[in-house]
Task: structure prediction
Amino acid sequence: MKLLVKGGRVIDPGNNIDEICDVLIINSKIAAIGRDLPITGDEDVVDAGGKIVCPGFIDIHAHFRDPGYEYKEDIITGSKAAAVGGFTTVCCMPNTDPVIHNGPVASYVRRKGEEAGLVNVLPIGSITRNLEGEELSEMAELAEAGCIAFSDDGNPVMRSDVMRHALEYAGMLNLPIFSHCEDLNLSRDGQMHEGYYSTLYGLQGIPAEAEEIMTARDVELASLTGARLHVCHVSTRGALHIIEEAKSSGAHVTCEVTPHHLTLTDEAVGSYDTDTKVNPPLRSEDHVNALVKAVSSGLIDCIATDHAPHNVESKDCEYAKASFGISGIETAVPVIMDRLVHTGLLDIVEMVRLFTLGPSRVLGLCLGTLTPESKADITIIDPDAIGRVDPAAFHSKGKNTPFKGMELRGWPWMTISGGKIVAREGRLV
Amino acid sequence: MRFDRRKDLLGLRDITREEIEVILGTAIPMKDIIRRDVKKVPALRGKGVITVFYENSTRTRTSFELAGKYLSADTSNLAVSTSSVQKGESLKDTIKTIEMMGPDVLVMRHSCSGAPHYVARNTTMRVINAGDGINEHPTQALLDMYSIRERKGTLEGLKVAIVGDILHSRVARSNIFGLSKFGCELRVIGPSTLIPPGIDKLGVKAYANLESGLKGVDVINVLRIQKERQHGALFPSIDEYRELYMIRPEHLALAADDAIVLHPGPMNRGIEISTELAESPRCIVNEQVSNGVAVRMAILYLMLGGGRDEIAG
Result:
């Protein structure tokens, strides 16, 4: 089986490639990259003229809700949404029911991802049993079953001793801890970012310091233990400073930002639209500007969606009663393209790095390049395609997005997973 | 009427000064009606007003009910504690059910900020916010403004201090939004733990010291300390609060001549306001209650589009 992607602008940061050329895929692997690769007649040809051809995008932070909350999302619908959204690899957070805290649950996630057959579905195991923050999960068993990291995302580990031991133990397995940094004592009852707009809108605030205090703690513990710490969904200027310092002092610290934290501010909460309710909350403009600056300066390792689909009932209600979270895996690419790349805030090559090589390095996996002999995972973007965000057309069960109705420029055009075209122009193939 | 362009009254944040003036102006003849022997005009005959209170407040609810009745509207109340809400019905479904029974106006109080905004988007009924979470309580602020204007002759340029738990006070927030449209100099006074962040950006000056905050003010609006909200460690004790922030008659000497004292009620005498002050003629808490009915009559009247003639003598 041969597939020739012709004439696109190939951007492969891992191999320092940025030129118009062709990519040849043979038997689900990258066979060659080069100018004017010959058409031999026995291959399918994709005309990628005017498009941007990249290694398959990796989302290292998503919630597929499976097992347990299949009414919000399952691995099949999540995989479809990921493929259409331009992703070929997705890491699934363990806050499921049962929690991904032992081998069988992790195996279930992997197996179901393989059955879906659209994208690589990689489970993240929990740090603690039942996400209770008390006893460590069986991390070696989880690693054996295919978990690529550990996280108690959504239920931050409040006990510093538990976090210390988690880092030490995960370090022994050479796997990263993905930390959701939040001091629950400070954020309690909060609905949105604390500041001018929380006062204006009359909602309980979540101070930036709730995130920064825990980021500082975890960074210190990463230094103490020498283990790999990955800071999830960084949303404040202070947290960026802490991470910058930790990186320059040689700690093994990486971090991600989400498309919504890069493009929306707390002002958006004014209509009490529960689709703007997310944790960490949408921050004020100064924080957003700092994030944008950090993403273009290279401080940020990757962009992750924190795809958090919800059923209608969890969002169609009073603001304080609504669940936190944004269904973001189908809008991540166009939001970043439209708001950061087309506005000149982020170079396209840098953007590709943030979705490919960056997350691959966080995970320590050999993904995110077009190196010959590697698995043929390819994302092709049409930088000029214009489309409106229509949640009703989402492949995800979660229709909860604050980007609804927005017209965006720059959408995924084709997703190739393991040499197979799985999605094209918003549709599954 | 000006309310032809506005379906709901959700807060004073997004309302114009002109709209506030229309409401306060319409409340003047309404107050005359309350003073009459026969307190009933036919202005809203055949109109339905329903009150739904997800938080208890007998006085606000009664004020709305009487306001509707004096204008001949049919008023009723959905008792939330005994309704299907207790059986897990969603707010949206409850409101739809009420809507299908046909009332024109829904008066709602809810513990969640923004709940009336959510409801207003999901119903054809006109919605009046009777207090939502820590966000707004527009009719309270309007009756405060009416009461101040009645005593002072104007709102323009007055110095107004609001004292107490500003952070959790929808009354404070609505007063700030309303009064700032009339060029008032606004101050809030309270322990620093109860002052919301970014209040200065609303043009409000914050004071932790009662005496310095009260200097030269024309109006002192004293808030009720809501003991049920003090689950955190926001202030050490009621005793210490009393020592630092209870308004007493001697404080009036710091304020402007003829300064008046307001309180949204119910008062905690001996905690945020001393009994001596509560009973002094400078404290207009009782007038506020009557004015509350008049202002709510004005709002219902404007919303339901009664003719001007019907409220004349």
